[in-house]
Design a protein that fits this description.
The chain is mostly beta strands and 414 residues long. The chain has a domain of 282 residues: Neuraminidase (6 Propeller), CATH 2.120.10. It has 1 helix and 34 strands. It has a 5-stranded mixed β-sheet, with no helix packed on it. A hairpin with a 5-residue loop joins strand 12 and strand 13.
Length: 414
């Protein structure tokens, strides 16, 4: 998953101290068919809010819509619905491992890593040629993927977005996209409906792809750049069928940012975050804390326990724009505003994995990304990440990204 905490009812959530990643905002920014089967709900999922504590020694409780008793998780642990500040912010990652570039290239980036240490991303050759690549393992060096693509036009701009644990890789080479299996030597072209262009964002373990398709380019006159009207979609590589998602009631566009292995999809519709349920095709808006004037919000990632992370932008007369990292618990209906707890005005939750680890980026200081581990109540800095870039993590806590303009791998220190 694209990025991806397991905040089941009563899961204890710690807090960290500490440049912003923002996924598509949907135009303001498992049954499968080409019909628009999504139904939208105007009633947002209930939200619980809390005040910012003056002392980090205080435990902050964010109750869900219906406060549950503590429950026993599948691993036998008993959890409570509390948020606790961590004891300290530390560096729990070793120095970055340089993954190298293609011959003749000086810049590369690792975009995703799976649980078998297969890494994907891109690498330049010369100054302008950017190719989708994969690293079969951290010592292999990058290998080009364009040889697996049936390209209609000669393009020297491609990128590998995601790799699942089955080894399937999501590659875009505009105006096309593919699901590639380099071990099997095969690829399948992603072919959603409409002919106005599309963007891909995520891939799950069953080869389902999500993104957004452009359905119309409204004419806005000679003095502006038109913004397309978009629809979120799920495309099934096994059947070739497409399901259109959204928009929410009252919205014009939608975009899908992430899909988990249950087929649940999250994204944004005209700057309003949503979750889509594949079982009944319903689309529900995720409510955000009403602490300031909301400009837009986006759900960026969802893990296999149905926990969602994202970001919201607010505006205040005194301080101007601010970004807030959010975590939604779909089981309890609660939401946590991490930025209020941290007392920072620019933060974004980029992704989370299935081991209760969240990637956060703090625009406040332009610092390296932070990994918030909800299970151990710790916060770790990923050192020496190229300024302005984030990282992706697998379920083992390994991080992949860019350091000194080159693809890099960070291994956690035990």
């Amino acid at each position: 998953m694209g990025v991806e905490v397991s905040v089941m009812r009563g899961f204890a959530i710690p807090v960290l101290m500490g440049v912003l990643f923002v996924a598509s905002c949907g135009g303001s920014g498992n049954t499968r068919s080409t019909e628009d089967t999504s139904a939208s709900s105007s009633a947002p999922i209930p939200v619980s809010t809390s005040t910012v504590p003056e002392s980090t020694a205080i435990e902050i409780t964010v109750p869900p819509a219906t406060p549950p008793a503590a429950e026993t998780a599948v691993d036998g642990t008993t959890t409570e619905n509390t948020i606790r500040p961590p004891a300290a912010v530390t560096v729990r990652y070793a120095a970055p491992v340089d993954l190298g570039t293609l011959p003749g290239g000086s810049k590369s980036m690792a975009v995703d890593i799976n649980n078998s240490e297969v890494i994907v991303g891109f690498s330049y050759v010369g100054t302008f040629e950017q190719y989708a690549v994969w690293w079969p393992d951290p010592t292999s060096g990058p290998q080009r993927l364009d040889g697996y693509l049936s390209l209609r036009v000669d393009t020297q701009q491609s990128i590998a977005h995601r790799v699942n644990d089955a080894g399937q890789i999501l590659v875009s080479a505009q105006p096309q996209a593919f699901v590639v299996d380099p071990v099997a030597g095969s690829s399948i072209e992603v072919v959603p409906p409409f002919d106005e262009g599309f963007q891909v964002r995520d891939l799950n373990e069953f080869g389902e792809v999500v993104g957004s398709v452009n359905i119309e380019w409204p004419d806005c006159g000679d003095d502006c750049e038109p913004n397309p009207i978009t629809r979120g979609f799920v495309w099934d590589s096994a059947t070739g069928e497409t399901t259109i998602i959204g928009p929410l009631d009252g919205a014009e566009s939608s975009a899908a940012n992430s899909i988990n292995d249950l087929g649940q999809v999250v994204g944004a519709s005209d700057g309003r975050p949503f979750i889509w349920d594949p079982d009944d095709g319903t689309m529900a808006e995720l409510e955000v804390p009403e602490v300031e004037h909301l400009v837009w919000a986006s759900a960026n990632d969802i893990n296999n326990r149905g926990v969602i992370v994202g970001v919201a932008q607010y505006v205040t007369d005194a301080q101007g724009p601010s970004m807030r990292a959010l975590i939604w618990d779909t089981t309890s209906g609660g939401v946590l505003d991490l930025s209020s707890v941290l007392a920072v005005d620019r933060a974004g939750a980029q992704m989370l994995n299935d081991s209760a680890q969240v990637v956060l980026r703090m625009g406040q200081t332009g610092s390296d990304p932070w990994i918030l581990d909800l299970a151990s109540n710790t916060v770790s800095m990923v050192p020496d990440v190229t300024f302005g870039y984030g990282v992706s993590i697998n379920d083992h806590g390994q991080a992949a990204g860019m350091s000194a303009e080159r693809a890099a791998l960070w291994n956690p220190i035990a």
